[in-house]
Amino acid sequence: MSRTRAIGKTLSIAAMAALLTGCSTSGPSSTEKLAERAVDAGDYNTAASLYRQAYDANPNSVEALLGLGRSYAGLGQYTRAEQALAQAKQRRPRDSEVLLELARTQLETGKAQSALTNLDQALAISPRNLQVITARGIALDQLSRHAEAQASYRSGLAIDPTNFALLSNLGLSYGLSGQSDEGIRILRELVRDNAASARTRGNLALVYGISGRERDARATLSTDLTPSQIDSNIAYYRELRTLLGTGKPIGKLR
Questions:
Q1: How many Å apart are CA 176 and CA 170, to the nearest integer?
Q2: Would you say residue 159 has pLDDT above 50?
Q3: For 178, left (φ over 0), alpha (ψ -120 to 50), or beta?
Q4: Res. 4: pLDDT tops 50
Q5: How far is CA 2 from CA 5, 7, 8, 195, in A?
């Protein structure tokens, strides 16, 4: 979508939101549907406002709380997101979608153990949910439980052998646990894919860096970063390499 079309879509959603605000006949379900469109357009401010309207109209709406959590997370307001999602969990404690979103928010704020608890609950409810399996692996990696994380990713790959997110996180996990060659092998294949993003290339650069292949790391980062940003990343990789060399675990990355 072009930038002009994206702006137009956001403006049209905002205009419709204004109409809904002044229209007492529009129920929460209509408001929530419009809020979903705002999220799809990346307009998290409008989405949060609309989901708040839906919640005020029906404080028992788990969908409104779930939407609020996603919208606040999209704005980087993780404390508010966690509060909304914790309320959603209280109302619907066995909803795997709610548990997953709450765990994702907790991962963003360094609460990996709390996230893992929620993800274990979600996995018991939805054992083949690949998003849950992926997030659970990330939580285990943040806790430096890399062997368990890799087992989680592989369990997901047994369901979908070509899943991009699972493969990317598995490659990174191998690098964090000192198995750089295997991590590089996986990630080098992924960066050739059209689905590859700056995050994917960053994962490969990190594994290059902690294995001492700084030239390869710089070349990989050059697609997305400035020279000064590359220098900063290389310095960080050296810190991680030192930790690995002393046998210290590497969990949550900056």
A1: 10
A2: yes
A3: left
A4: no
A5: 5, 9, 10, 19
Q: For 51-84, write each residue's pLDDT tens digit.
A: 999 999 999 999 999 999 999 999 999 999 999 9
Q: Which residue has the tokens 């905002």?
A: 14
Cut 0.90: pTM above it: no
Q: Give the span between the Cα atoms of 133 and 143, in whole angstroms.
A: 16
Q: Are 129 and 123 in contact (CB under 8 A)?
A: yes
Domains of the chain in start order, with CATH, are: 21-92 (1.25.40.10), 98-161 (1.25.40.10), 165-254 (1.25.40.10)
Alpha carbon of residue 87 to chain centroid = 21
Give, as one character, the DSSP assignment of residue 195. T
Distance CA 159, CA 18 (A): 45
The single residue listed with the structure tokens 């710089």 is 218
Q: Which two tokens stand for residue 50?
A: 């609309």
Report which DSSP code applies to 185: H
Return the amino acid letter for 147.
Answer: A
Q: Tell me, what amino acid is at 77? A: Q
Distance CA 90, CA 109 (A): 20
pLDDT band of 247, cuts 50, 70, 90: confident
Residue 172 vs residue 30, higher pLDDT = 172
Each as own residue / partner, the long-range contacts of residues 244-250 (CB below 8 Å, 24 or more positions apart, any chain) are 244/178, 244/210, 249/144, 250/144, 250/176, 250/210
